[in-house]
Design brief:
alpha/beta
């Protein structure tokens, strides 16, 4: 069965979703919404969607609305959609945090359905120009039930994830945010701290940027990601991220103490345990 899908936000995630649907033979009508006239022009030129608009009201024509905007923006849009969507329509999202998103979905009127979702993929480059039809291929796609979820809505969102090559998995809202604090949000915070500390060091030692090895590039890559997106993620999952940062600080203090004591055996064990964990979980 095909549906009319409205994609709100045609940046990296939304435009890639449209491309992936097209590339995988989706025959339903696609509506693309963006506040940027330039983005809409590019979407039209690339034939990403069937209809382009700057007005959220066009979501009222859709069977499924997929919100691909920054988290705090999409939370506001969920409330706006309460009076725009047709009865039975499904609202879902691509937000990287879920507690506040699901709370907004729970408050929707009973004639609407909603499923929280989060595809675990992305790039450090943002915008429609970075869109990639293969972005979702092989990626986990986390699905979260809300008070407005039913089995059919969950099945439809799951099928869309599978259509673009992702692997859907259902997860509880609080569990999602606790896991993502370590799996995604802490790595970003550490990358930002690494780049910031190195940038400060470079004020007196500018040549440090000329001797960077691949490890620094790999570790710091996500620090170049879209700032607005990440600001929303951090502020809507602040408690879990703070807990993850404190756990990291405790572990870094252990490492620091071993190095200060020049404890070779202790340091070797510490490094070996980390190396083994990395090899075990990323084969």
């Amino acid at each position: 069965m095909t549906h009319t899908i409205c994609i709100v936000g045609l940046g990296l995630m939304g435009a890639s979703f449209a491309l992936a649907l097209r590339a995988n033979g989706y025959a339903g009508r696609l509506i693309g919404i963006s506040r940027s006239a330039e983005t809409l022009r590019k979407a039209q030129a690339r034939d990403l969607v069937d209809i382009v608009s700057s007005e959220l009201s066009h979501a009222g024509e859709a069977d499924v609305v997929v919100l691909c905007t920054p988290v705090r923006t999409l939370i506001t849009q969920i409330g706006q959609l309460a009076n725009l969507c047709r009865p039975g329509a499904i609202i879902t999202d691509m937000g990287s945090t879920k507690t506040e998103v699901v709370r907004a979905m729970d408050a929707l009127p009973a004639h609407l359905r909603a499923v929280g979702s989060h595809p675990m993929c992305g790039k450090e480059t943002a915008g429609i120009d970075a869109a990639d039809a293969s972005l979702y291929r092989g990626a986990p796609w986390l699905l979260t039930r809300t008070r407005r979820s039913d089995d059919e809505a969950l099945s439809i969102v799951r099928a869309l994830a599978e259509r673009v090559g992702a692997t859907p998995r259902e997860i509880g809202v609080e569990h999602h945010d606790a896991l993502l604090a370590f799996a995604s949000h802490l790595p970003y915070a550490l990358a930002v701290a690494l780049v910031t500390a190195t940038d400060q060091f470079s004020l007196n030692q500018p040549e440090v940027w000329q001797v960077m090895a691949g490890g620094f590039r790999d570790t710091s890559r996500v620090a170049a990601s879209d700032v607005t997106m990440w600001l929303d993620i951090l502020l809507t999952n602040a408690d879990a991220v703070l807990g993850a940062v404190r756990d990291f600080q405790f572990t870094l203090d252990q490492f620091t103490a071993l190095l200060e004591r020049r404890d070779e055996e202790g340091l070797r064990a510490f490094l070996a345990a980390a190396a083994q964990a990395r090899k075990t979980h990323f084969r």
